Each structure stands twice: as structure tokens, then as C-alpha cells.
Amino acid sequence: MSKLRVAVIGAQGRIGSEAVRAVEAADDMELVAALGRGDSLETLTEKGVQVAVELTHPDSVMENLQFCVTHGIHGVVGTTGWTEDRLARLNSWLDASPRTGVLIAPNFSIGAVLTMVFAQQAARYFESAEVVELHHRGKADAPSGTATRTAQLIAAAREEAGLPRQEDPTTHGLAGARGADVDGVPVHAVRLRGLLAHQEVLFGDTGETLTIRHDSLHHSCFMPGILLGARRVVDTPGLTFGLENFLDLG
Amino acid sequence: MSKLRVAVIGAQGRIGSEAVRAVEAADDMELVAALGRGDSLETLTEKGVQVAVELTHPDSVMENLQFCVTHGIHGVVGTTGWTEDRLARLNSWLDASPRTGVLIAPNFSIGAVLTMVFAQQAARYFESAEVVELHHRGKADAPSGTATRTAQLIAAAREEAGLPRQEDPTTHGLAGARGADVDGVPVHAVRLRGLLAHQEVLFGDTGETLTIRHDSLHHSCFMPGILLGARRVVDTPGLTFGLENFLDLG
Amino acid sequence: MSKLRVAVIGAQGRIGSEAVRAVEAADDMELVAALGRGDSLETLTEKGVQVAVELTHPDSVMENLQFCVTHGIHGVVGTTGWTEDRLARLNSWLDASPRTGVLIAPNFSIGAVLTMVFAQQAARYFESAEVVELHHRGKADAPSGTATRTAQLIAAAREEAGLPRQEDPTTHGLAGARGADVDGVPVHAVRLRGLLAHQEVLFGDTGETLTIRHDSLHHSCFMPGILLGARRVVDTPGLTFGLENFLDLG
Amino acid sequence: MSKLRVAVIGAQGRIGSEAVRAVEAADDMELVAALGRGDSLETLTEKGVQVAVELTHPDSVMENLQFCVTHGIHGVVGTTGWTEDRLARLNSWLDASPRTGVLIAPNFSIGAVLTMVFAQQAARYFESAEVVELHHRGKADAPSGTATRTAQLIAAAREEAGLPRQEDPTTHGLAGARGADVDGVPVHAVRLRGLLAHQEVLFGDTGETLTIRHDSLHHSCFMPGILLGARRVVDTPGLTFGLENFLDLG
Known about the structure:
4 copies of one chain form a homotetramer. Chain A is built from 7 helices and 13 strands. The first copy, chain A, has 250 residues and is an alpha/beta fold. Chain A is elongated and about 65 Å long. Chains in contact: A-B, A-C, A-D, B-C, B-D, C-D. Strand 8 of chain A pairs parallel with strand 7 of chain C, so a sheet runs across the interface.
């Protein structure tokens, strides 16, 4: 079988340089281009790139994707900053190139994505649900975006299943003890030196608890998801938003 | 809405007496019969029972179910000892009573069932997978049946996804350190006074791990699953084997 | 060796009835009296009780202890509500009965006490420290008294070791996400149906974390500490406050 | 206050280069020499080094320490391969230089050392004790040396306290399920891609469990212990074996 011809755009960044190594190490892929700041996008067509992994910056991602889609190169995109307007422009390019696929994912960690999927599935079956996220001490926001999103998904699944909003049993206590309230789901944020990024989703009902925990120990955790995205995007024309759409959970 | 008319057969056992309390506490159910050893099954028809929760013994379960199915009473069955022959007999009764449903479940803990379902779903996405189960010191078998079953499901999902059998990296060590080998998935059994029944499924790949943990802290953990079974079995004619079939994981 | 002659005062309460069973089951003890409401304290002297386990109520504990100490009966006390004034009165009785010992402990769970001791010992060696406590949904206060006390002990140990007060790195977030602030140590309180009483103390520094976790799965968890107290109090005249004083941590 | 003048010997190794950065980042230390293979030891005296951090190889450590001790330079030693004979030679040099101190530590992770200390302290108070260690898939030995050592310390503490050897309750099961038997303490070894080095010590008794968990997420976890060793060794003449001797656990 011929190998998938892959390029990394943003190859000198922290995640980009991991992606270069990951593509090189994959048996079924060949790294045919690694573009940094100032390198010409023409290289992608000259090298016959099939999939471009885009890991640059909101300032450059649109130009890069316009070039890729126009030339029939599939995209796997980790760059953030997506707005309605940007998505509409991307979709118009894809409409004009109907065999090309683009995957945009806010999180390429398969473990983080599965944690959210499982949390949603479990939510309707437990009386109580809370989220604890734990990160390094350099993190400026609390709770994390992933934890907030997880809590929102849990709240929506509870509502859909007809479960009532959780009532806090606390009648006296210290401010903050019961965490942040995200649509009725308490979210607690721990900050410890030595940690990277971790999340625990806790469910409880009569006599039992279910805990789903994701630990990111190194930022290379995004690589399996990026490789999976590259393998699947070539058979998935149009825009796919979220890695969960490429996971088989049948 | 009229309440579901429920009976418990085996109402004096440890789980049966929990079930009596759970049905009584459920807003949408009415406990109309609680049968113990020697009580007549006729009570079920006299009281207009819709669902019978069968928590007795392999010696009596067949007689009880024959009566229920023949009289159009749905069954939720926790009694064990099912063989091909027994299932065939039960199916023949159900064939003759095509609107009646019976749910048999080896495990009515929703948390335990979800742990197995999620483990199966996650298995194909991680290079490594192991199972740790932890139980009280009165447990005579190791590993637990649930842990063995979970490991088998993981091994099957890996094989289906084309993942290789896990190789043990250990070249020197003490016998037993790497656990029991269940189809290539190591299973470790901890026995501690103070515990009841707990299981952890661990997955790992580049830079991240995913852990699914189920803790049973009290044997009342089977009640939400029994109630769910009773609610769903009335709309599910025929035989259903395994509570997972009644969980919506869409 | 002759067995220790033990009485339980408050034998009909939830913890008291556990204590009756625990003393009966102990090889080195004999349960010689089990007093309930209205029973005469004279039984204690008539039966030659050496140690009385006092598990009643703040309304009755002073009268019970006055009788015990005056008659040279050692006490192991789980009843709460101790004030400076009450302790002074108890000490005056002990002064008059110099061979008699009384142990008062706010928590007889050895695991909970060790968690606090270890947290104090570890605190000076880690840049970061936080506490997560997890309880059943019937708990009205948050955080738990044990978690608050643990955080205070950590804060005191940090200060003694010259560590700075922890700065929260959060610059934007949701109110409550970072927990309650107890002397600079964040404390997070989770409330889940199915849980009983659990606490996790987390420490972090460069490249590593240390977690000390205590799980109470049943209220019988106080029994080993009560028995230990009874064995040790007979050789420890005067007042001892806190089970940690009877633990050998050399 | 004048800064401690520190050298790193073996400065180009993986741990050595971390140590260089850690000493440079410490407010109370000055890195005055960083020696690699072939560099002259004379630099240590020329630069007025007070403490040498020795992170080389069993082939070179003796020569390096002989030079240091003879010249009154204190040593903090992470190199392994210590035998009775080697320790005797080192002690003879120290006898001739009575103000000089050397710390040798098999493990400079404060979290790992505290885990062992706490495990020893707790062991006598719980009926059951087991160890689970979890490492990356490159690890060739199972269980880890640290886990084996921890289990031996637990077994010794149990014996000293008069606790019986743990009996395995298992009557039928799969080989290996109950782990490796280290002096009656079961030790289980998990190997997952994505992990680095982790250990959990589990204790159980009536109604409760206590868990002490250490997670090494990066090999920089040895740095706080190395810095602590350097600060303390200057006031501790003679040989100290084990970082635990420099921890204040009063």
C-alpha cells in the first residue's frame, strides 16, 4: 500500500515539531513537507501532499487552508480562533472542491474526547455528577475550557433525560467550597506544580460511583489523534468539527 | 399516570429486601406483592402484577418465570445459573406469549455495565490496556468474573480494530507481578479489608492515559438498574440478556 | 493474660451498637456492660469495668465521665461538644484520680488521623497543596470539619517551614472554581450520592505529586481506633486529646 | 547571606543537565562548576566548591568522591552501584576528613521517599496492605525496585507490630492475578504507554482504606531532593545513606 503523503504546516512550533516526529514514525505515512514561517505553500503542490496538518496561528490559518482546499489537499487543523464567519468562508471553499475534507478539532487528545463522550453517555443514569480538573500552576483560567464544556454536555444530557437540576445540599459552608456552578454541575479546579492537564468526571447514585479520568502527561498526547485525523479525513469530504466524529463508538 | 404494578419474588433475601424498599420508594411504581419462600405465585395474578422482579435461586427461577410468562407478567431476573438449555425453555414460553418481555442481567449495577461498555469503546484507541479489580477479603476467586469479562471484551475490541496482542515488556521479575493474562490483557486483583467491589480499567497511549473506575460501596447499587429494567421491560417483548441493551448510549 | 473489662455507654446508638460488636469480637477484651439511656452507672463498678467507651451526647457525657474518673475507670470518649470549661472540669477530676486516663478524640478513624499526620509531615516539602473532600449528598456543611482542619495543619506546617502562602495563578475564571480558601490552602468539596466520607490531600512540586487519600466506606471505620484507644488508655494517666497521640509513628 | 557554591559532576547527562538548571535557578546557590567527561577535578578546588553533586557512573564515582572528600568538598551522590566494599572505602576517606559530609540516595524524589516513610508508619495499623506500581512500557523489571523495597518495609513494620503475615483469601483463580508475593505483601505491576513512574500503597481495615500515591510525571522530580541534600549535607559530617534521613518528620 502506498503511504499517505503528509505535510506539517507550523513545523517549528512545540506541537508542530512533535507532529513532524509523529508522522515520520508512522508506518503508513510519509512526511513530504515541513513548513515553517515564511516557507512557500507551493511546496505542498510540488510535493504532492495529500493531507496538510495545520498547526500555526489564527493569523495565518485561513490563507493556508484556502490554498490547501483550492488545490484538493485535505486538512487536519489544530489552530484555534474559529468564528461563524471563518467557518462560512471555509465551507464556501469546500463547496467549490467537493472531494476535499477538513477536520478542525478543539482537542486532539483521544483520551480527552472519549472522556467527554462517555460523560455524556453516563450522565442520564446517575443522580449526581461533578467535575474535578487538575492543572499545572501556570494555568490562568479556572475552570479549564474542557471542564466547562464537559459540564455543559453533562447538564444537557441530564436535561434531555428529564433529570432535575442538581440541588446543592450545603446549608452552611465557606464560599467556593462547592466549586463553580456550570449549568448545575459543580466544577472544581486544582492547581499543583508537577501536574500537566488532568480531568476527573464523577458520577454517583445509590451505592455506587463511576469515575472517568483523563491524564495528559505530555503534550505529545495530541499525536495519536492527529494521525487518526489524517487517516480518516481523506475519506471524509467537507468540514468535520470535532475529533469525536471520527471515533467509532458503535 | 397510573403506577407500574411490581412484585418482588425472593423478597426476604438480602438483595430482595433492598428491592422491596427500592420499589416502594419509586414514585412511578407500586409494590403490590412481596413473595417469600412458600408463598403462592397465584398472588401475582390476583394482584394484577405487571412486572415481577425475580431474585431467588437457580432451583426456583424456572418455575417462577414459567408462571409469569404464561400469565403475561414481564420479568426482571437477577438469579444466575443460566445455561443454553434453560434459555431455550424460557424462549419457548416467550414464543407462546409474544407480548411478554424478560430481562436477565448478570449485573444490575449500571456503573459496572457502563464501565464494560466504555472499556470496549475505548479499547481500539489505545496501545496499552490493563484491568485492576479490588475487593473485600472474603472474595474467594481472583480475578473477579466482571474483571475477566471486561478484559475479554477489551481483547476482542482490540482484535477487531487490528491492534496487536499486547507484548509484556518485562524481561526479569517476580512471578505474578504482571497479573493474570486474559487474552493478552493483564488483570490484577487486590484484596483489602474495608473494600466492597471496585474495578479500574486503564488505557495508555503516547502522552496520556484514560481510566474508567467503578466503585460499589453498598449492595444497594443494584437497585437503580433493577428499577430501570422494570420500566423498560414492559415495552420490550421477548428475551433481553444484559442490562446494557436497555441503556441509551446514542 | 486476663482480658480487658470494657463497658460501652450509649450502647443503643448507631456507633455504640457497632462498638458493642467490636468489643465482643476482640480477643483481648470482654464486654462486661452495655448501658443505654436510663441504665444506672453503678453497673460499671459492680461489673469491675476497667475502660468505659463513652458514646452518648454532650448532655450526658460530663456526668458519665465524672462517675468513671472518680471510680478509677478509664475513658475512651467519642462524644463531642468540648469547651475550655468542660475540659477544665474533666482535668480537675483527673487530678484527683491520678492513675486514671481519659482519651477524647474528635475522630476515631485511624485512616483519617494518619491522613492528617502525613499531610502535616509532607506539607513543608512541596510547593503546592490542596485538599479535595468527597461526601454523600446528605452533608449540610462544606467543606467538612476534617478537611478544614487538615488544610489548617498544612498551612501551619508550611509557615513553620518558611514556605510562602500559596498564590492563586488564576487571573480569570468562574467564582468558586478554585475552592474555599483555608489559610491559603484551597479546599474543594464534592457531594455525590453513593459516597460516604472521603478525603484526598494533594501535594505537588517539580515533576511529581504525592496524594494521600482516605476512604470511609462504612461507619464501622471508627472501631479499630476505639479498640486501640481502650488498649492504650489504661497505661496513659491524665487527659489525652486526639487519637494521634496513641499512634507510634517513630 | 553568601550563596552555597555548588558543582555538578556529570553535567551532560540527562539528570545532570537538569541538576545544572536546578542549581542555577536556586536563589541560595551558585553553580560554580559543571564537569563533563574528561574535565579535570582540579576545577572543584580552584573554584572553591563547597558541595559537589555527583551524577556520573559506577566506573567514575569512587575517584570523584575520593578527590572531593580528601579536599573537604561535601558530596550529594545519585550514582548507583554501592557495595559493602565501596562504602567501607568511602567511610575511610570520611574518617580522615571528619568535617566532610556525603549523602548517597538511591532515590532523590522526595515524594517517593515520603511514600515509603508513610507506608512504614501506617503498616502496623491496618489488617491488609498491597502495593500497585505503574510504569511506562519500556521498563524491563517487574515489580520496580521501589515497590519491592516498599513492600519489604511494610512487611517488616507489620512483623515488628505483631501483625500476622497476610493470608491470601483466594481459593480459585488465574495464576498471577494476586500479584507477586514480597514477604506476604502482594505487589502488582502495571505497564502502560504514556505513564512514567507511579506507585500506590493501599491499606485497608474495618470500614476504611488509606491510599498513598506517588506520581513521577517528569524526571526533574529528583531536583528538589538534590537541592535539599546539598543544603543539608554541609552540616552533616560523615556518610548519610538515604534522603529520608534529611527529612524532618517530627
